[in-house]
Structures are given as C-alpha cells and as structure tokens.
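Incident log, entry 3
Record: Protein late bloomer (252 residues)
Problem: checksum mismatch between cached and fresh output.
Input:
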Amino acid sequence: MIVYYNTIKYTGLLSNFLYMLLAIGVMSAAGLGLQIVEPNTPEHTYFVESLVLGATICMIVIFGCYGMVCDLLSVNLIFTFFILIVLAVEYLQVHNYQPHTRYSDAWQQLELSLAWQNLDKQPELMQHLEQQQHCCGYNNAEDYKNLHLPLPSSCYQQSPQSDGSTKVKLISHGCLATLSNTKRGILHRDKLFMWCIVGLEVFILVQTISLSLLLYKLRQRDRQARQQVPPGVRREPRANHVGSRAQLLDNV
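Fresh output:
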C-alpha cells in the first residue's frame, strides 16, 4: 500500500505542476491581451477573467501540493472540493461554449468587402489581403474573370522544387472562405484547449480522491497497530479517581 501511495503522490505532484504551468500560460496570454485591447470592452473583461482564473488555479494547486507533501488528509479533502468546483465551472464553459467577440470576423469581412469594391481604384488593398490570407478573389479566382480583369501576382503561389526550379500554382479558393475557415480553426483550437484543461482536472481529481482514500487507510492501520498489545505484555488497569482519592485519605 505504501508503494501505491507514493506512486500516486508523486504522480499527483507532477500533474499539479503541469496544471500550474498551464495556469501561468493562461495568465501570461491574458496579460499580453490586456496591453492590446481597449479598456471597458468585452475583450478587456475576458482577459481580466482569465487572469483571475489563472491566479485562482495557482493558489489551489499550491494548497493541494502542500497537503500532498505533508500527508494531511483534511487538506487533501479540501483540495478535492476545490477541484470539483473548478471542474464544474470548466464543464459549464465547455458545455455552453459560445464564441467570444474577439473571434468575430465582421471587421475582416468589412475590410474584404471594401477592398473588393475599390479594386479598380486601389488594387493594392485587395492584393495585400490575398497575400496575407493566401487566397484569390472575393469568392474564388473566377471573380477576376467575370470582371474581365487579369489575375494579379498575389493569386499565384510559388513553391521551390527539389531541382532548384520554382513551381507556380494558382490559388483557386476565395478570401471569404479563407476567413471562415480561419475562424473555425481558431474556435476548434480554443475548444480543444478547454477540453484539455477539463481532462487534466479530472485526472487530478481522481488522483486526489485515491490519495485521500489510501491516506485514510494508512492512518487506520497505524491506529490499529498502536492499539494492539504485544504478546506477553500485560496492560495495567487504569486507576479510577475514587481509588486514588481513598489512597490519599489513608496517607493523611
């Protein structure tokens, strides 16, 4: 049982260390985000909440590691309760996940629409978007043909070959579809990151419960061992207060 206890203990310390690193990463990203966004905006509130959540996780992890190192059953039970609360909050966030406004591509679509409308006056705006997003046209490359315009160089992608030559390939997909795919990719990574946090919390919760059960059984075994009397040793009966008082009166 001692071997199992030590294995779960050290594995739990490692898991909590990774959990703290994850929380520090969230706090660092939120700190960088606060320097970019404007105050009193939904993005600013989101990053402030991330800072508070990361700091709370760090304090909980430090508290839990203290209980593991010192083998304190009460601290482990309180840590289990804290992990349950954080896990419930994270599960609600994943279950009721809504894309944050920072992922809104409305301004990007507006910029794309303006660049396409001003294609005859300022073609460099559309070409800049095409080079940045690796796309061609508003919907696809056929948009230029419909307007009887030549395809710009930004619609071609050059890839070097093994023999030293360069292969030129036409980009067929449009910029509108590229923006939508980029947004879906960001949302997918964000949700996957949240599920990783929930999975790590479930793993830490199982470890903490197992550690508390083993610690309780070890305490019970030690208590029973102290109560057992070795063979050949006679336990002296406890003297009551009546007998001790009578002996004191006799001495007087």
